[in-house]
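Changelog note: in this version the structure field was regenerated for every chain. One regenerated record is shown below for reference.
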Amino acid sequence: MKEKPIEITAADCFARRRKEFTPVVIDLRSREEYDAGHLPGARWIDPREWNFFLDDLQQLSILVFYDADGGEKAMQAATWARGRGFRGACIVKGGYKELQKQLEEDSEVLAKIPETEWKSRIESLFDAQIRPVLEADGGGAEIVDISPEVLKIRYLGACTTCSGGAEGTMQLIDGFIQNWLNHRFDIQIVA
């Protein structure tokens, strides 16, 4: 008998995204629905690529699935993932509809904060989460400019010469901003 996936609320989903081990959030709606709007940081994976996608993850990864309404599609995907060894696979009760409601209520949505406060909020996130990771490898980053669509960053220290890690560092920064502040920027690296 297959073990039923854990059901979490939209608020739990947001709380989990702000933890040290950020879950992989997967949108199960159609590609068109995903492109029209999705939870910042959520991934859409072509169903034909599921096996390859899961093969690239460690089984300790926490997977959070959502569909349009927290229904059968999410339950089937999470059950399948749990059967593949992902014991932390869970679904969001109410799906995307509930996530949207939670986004409207969540105080940690950057778009709700006056733009004059964005830099201090992002600097706080950098100080608490991003800079310690970069500094551990002798690098760093500073915020150069912020607009609603673009975040300009200058790499410092070892980050300025690490061509192989530049993309990974950008993904790290993007992931933290999406998970903690529920916003997606076009991140640009400037000299």
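Spot check on this record: The CA atoms of residues 16 and 113 lie 22 Å apart. The first strand starts at residue 6 and ends at 8.
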